[in-house]
Amino acid sequence: MAYDSILRDSTKQDNYETAYRLACDELARMDIEKQCEKAGARLTDQGKGIILRFLNRDHLISYPDIEVSFQDGEGEVTLWEKIVIIHYLVTAKGTKPAGELISYKQVPDGRLYYPNFVNRTTRPLIKVFGKDPSLLLEAAGLLGGTPSDYGDYAVTIPALPRVAVTTIIWTGDDEFPPDANMIFDANIVDYLPAEDITVLCNMIALKLMKYQPTTKGNK
User: Fold this and answer.
1) In this structure, what DSSP letter does residue 121 have?
2) Which of 8, 28, 154, 171 is most buried (CB neighbours < 10 A)?
């Protein structure tokens, strides 16, 4: 189930709104300069806001009365995006990349949430890109992604300043069907919990799948 469809359940939305406000309250009590440094964010010149790059767009988080918006003022940030952003700022430990890539199952509680992760991320990606994975490389460019040397096709997307997500597609053959995975540097556990990683990867998958090539017919 996509994250935007979940929000149609008003009861669940109330719970998520509460979780968001609690996270905002926690952020407001923290040493914001230290947290910005740990998260790779920066304070505005007036010190009343935080600028954070998220999925290739700059977001403005007002402070200490926490509100999240796009810095350019165009469009509206969804509740799920706000939750991931604030949880990231609250959780960030400033850990450097470990240089070791891990799968979702290796994240704390990842095995518990793995079926949901697959349903919301890799399974839809296979349906869209399994037959023409070259489109993955084009789509990822819109998110600031670059090609990576994994599988048959792979892209690494800098989702947040300290969190990158690598999406891999295997094309398959007569013996094996197409497959996909999303992996991360091991330091992701110091920035996001398992549930937020699922939501983040779902956002990335949805944005990739919405890509519509304009020149494919001319190739």
Assistant:
1) T
2) 154
Burial degree of 217 (CB within 10 A; 0-12, 13-18, 19+) = exposed
- Its domain, for residue 51, covers 3-91
**175 in a domain, yes or no?**
yes
In this structure, are residues 159 and 204 in contact, taking their beta carbons and an 8 Å threshold?
yes
Residue 7 has pLDDT above 60, yes or no: no
Could you tell me which residue, 116 or 130, shows the higher pLDDT?
A: 116
- 204: which residues sit within 8 A by CB, 6+ positions away? 55, 121, 143, 157, 159, 165, 167, 182
What's at 24, amino acid-wise? C
- What's the CA gap between 89 and 203, in Å, rounded? 18
Contact between 160 and 100 under an 8 Å Cβ cutoff? The reply is: no
pLDDT at 175: 85
Instruction: Count Cβ atoms below 10 Å from residue 121 Cβ, excluding itself.
Output: 26
Q: How many CB atoms lie within 10 A of CB 210?
A: 10
For the chain, what is the domain count?
Answer: 2
Domain boundary pick from 33, 68, 91: 91
